[in-house]
Automatic annotation (TrEMBL):
Keyword annotations of the record: Magnesium, Metal-binding, Nucleotidyltransferase, Transferase
NCBIfam families the record matches: rmlA
Name used for this protein in its record: Glucose-1-phosphate thymidylyltransferase
EC number: 2.7.7.24
Family: Belongs to the glucose-1-phosphate thymidylyltransferase family.
Superkingdom of source: Bacteria
Domain Nucleotidyl transferase: 2-241
Gene3D superfamilies: Spore Coat Polysaccharide Biosynthesis Protein SpsA, Chain A
A Gene Ontology molecular function term of the record: glucose-1-phosphate thymidylyltransferase activity
Function description: Catalyzes the formation of dTDP-glucose, from dTTP and glucose 1-phosphate, as well as its pyrophosphorolysis.
Cofactors that this protein relies on: Mg(2+)
Amino acid sequence: MKAVILAGGSGTRLYPVTISVNKHFLPIYNKPMIYYPLSLVMLLGIKDVMFIVNPEDMDSFKKLFGDGSHLGMNISYEIQKKPNGLAEGLILAEDFIGNDNVCYMLGDNIFYGHDLINIMKDAKREIEINGGAYVFGYYVKDPERFGIVEFDEKGNVKSIEEKPQKPKSNYAIVGMYFYDNRAVEIAKNVKPSDRGELEITSVNEQYLKNGRLKVKLLGRGFAWFDAGTHDSFLEAGEFVATIEKKTGLMVGCIEEVAFNNGWIDKDTLLELAKPLRKTGYGKYLIELAERA
């Protein structure tokens, strides 16, 4: 399985902060927002990752991640000329995905919870064995802002609707999707919505029509932030700060994940920590290496 992380868009919900800075570079507490979805992909053991980025941000992404070799990964990039909808990212990544299945992540979504990685691994395994699509639902108070999933009394999915004026439930589909290889062709056949965008909800609807969609609800014990608004951005940073201060462990530390995965050795970890040694982040990496 490969991973595609959508990190383009104009970030208008965070204006004026994002007029001159891509939102994915903004700090969620002590690290760039984009570190969080990347770290989850890495925790799944996925080394091949593509970022979908704006033309003007390509150099900045390459400065931050390069080709990924310093993390033991293979990172590549594809340009999205303008924000035409979430489903377009699958189309742009067609050559990269090739014949593989794909984990598709939104770069501004932050996840945390007990056993989250095992749940994601179960989804990955399900797609690898049986194909189809596997997505996650999360209870929200403002369902009109999201793609919403409706269930019957037995928990079966009845419908999915993008930003409904009259939501049929309070369960939003979060920005983490697992698809088999058919997702690209499905996305290519999606027609623009009334908003003029290629909606990821339309891709999920097609899987639902084919009887190939699984939805798992993330209930108590899980936190999800769509960090594309001022309030959610602030809440995500405060949440991460609280978790890290209470546990002494970092959330979304990509160098730590690479080291624990065995993708880089102790010397490489220390080399990566050198430029950061005056920060809490750098000291954390040094301590990690010393404990090893």
